[in-house]
Amino acid sequence: MSTPEVSVIKMYAAREEIYPREIKGRYATLRWLCVWLTQLVFYGLPWLQWNDRQALLFDLGARKFYIFGIVLWPQDFIYLAVLLIICAYGLFLVTAVAGRVWCGFACPQTVYTEIFMWIERKIEGTRSARMRLDKQAWGIDKLWRKSAKHLVWGAVALWTGLTFVGYFTPVRSLIGAVASLGLGPWEWFWILFYSLATYGNAGWMREQVCKYMCPYARFQSSMFDKDTLIITYDTDRGEPRGPRAKKTVAPAANVQGDCIDCSMCVQVCPTGIDIRDGLQYECIGCAACIDACNSVMAKIDLPAGLIRYSTDHAITKKWSFAQMQARVLRPRVLIYTAILGLIITAFFVSLFMRTPLKMDVIRDRGSMGREVEDGMIENVYRLQIMNTDEASHHFKISVAGIDGIALASPDELDLEGTGSRAVPVRVRVAAGEGRSGSNKISFTLVATDHASQQVTEKAVFFVPRGAGHDDHDKHDKHDDH
Q1: What is the DSSP track for 314-326?
Q2: pTM of the prediction?
Q3: pLDDT tens figures, 102-153
Q4: Which of these, 363, 347, 351, lies nearest to 388 by C-alpha position?
Q5: Nearest CA among 136, 130, 133 for reference residue 18
Q6: Which among 72, 89, 237, 329 is least buried, having the fewest CB atoms inside 10 angstroms?
Q7: Structural domains of the chain, with CATH
Q8: How far is 351 from 347, CA to CA, in rounded Å?
């Protein structure tokens, strides 16, 4: 009896190592400009000082978010939520207009992959040298080059992790704590976690993050239309492809196109795709293939633009650049822009008009209302006051809502900048004032040295039944009747 053949079905294709070739050109320069700008901002912001503190700090322990001259508290979380909505909506708008330019030029995955590949090229050499190095047996040369590369990668990743945590723990004290090994467990965890994430994503996984892990590539098609700017290969001009001599003019019958099939556009692609096969979700829009193709066209004295930024309509309808530009401000884009503009306007108006003062009123439920000396009725409250301004202020408390209502406790206090305090207050009314049961009152807190800073909160004053209110209650019932 013969043994049945066993077939192995692979659920995924094995990864083939990609060795992107270095290329120079207009878009490569722009990409490196984005690298420098984003990293100067990321690494530099934690070191900026503002009012003797870190300019940008998300202090989770103190539950305060410092953003230059603005201090946000947990109650201001709506502002952070709206800011994230603005960023997401802005990304969608940019995608509708210009495709995946964010992915190709400013995405952290692209930026750090570019940095790590630059380090790799400096240590291991050019594309062909790296391919030879990976194929050769282990020796001293291969060992020191690989070790040096990973050590530098690790140093960059570790500094990136430190900087990331520096946005949540003051970076100056963080560096000192690292030097003395005095960090807490959570700080060590997040430094190492973010460092390993940077090292793994930019050093090892690279294009796999964009192709398999990032959800953006999966739903980008819902934001594209026929007038979205994407990287395209001009099939009519390039096909049929094949080698050709310099300055050779294509025959009238168009037997040969301008593409000489040099595969340079494939060799420079960080995701390893062939743009000549059409738009693919793996394309991150980095435009490396445009620089490569333009450099080849220049060498054989043919016009640039065989691979270029264009749109489906521009390619199929042979539109000029001016005609393509005219379709940028189409209704869809105008509506997106108007909505985004309204959200941004409302966000900043609300942010800069907000009062940097908050007060919560909590009534002592253990004492629903009691009679004190002279037959007066007293309720006890706790005012949770927060001064979100960075300057100290002198505040005055007042209460209103019932005739003759007054505070029986100190009505003034000083509160330091970005400070909070629980202030117990006693409120009294004379016997016979107010209705039996709940009465609506309000507390007002105003800064005496800055009158525009004031806040009013509603509360309830409880008057016990039978506390000198018989005649008053009867009068109320008669009025109600």
Answers
A1: HHHTT--HHHHHH
A2: 0.82
A3: 999 999 999 999 999 999 999 999 999 999 999 999 999 999 999 999 999 9
A4: 351
A5: 130
A6: 329
A7: 11-354 (no CATH), 357-480 (2.60.40.10)
A8: 6
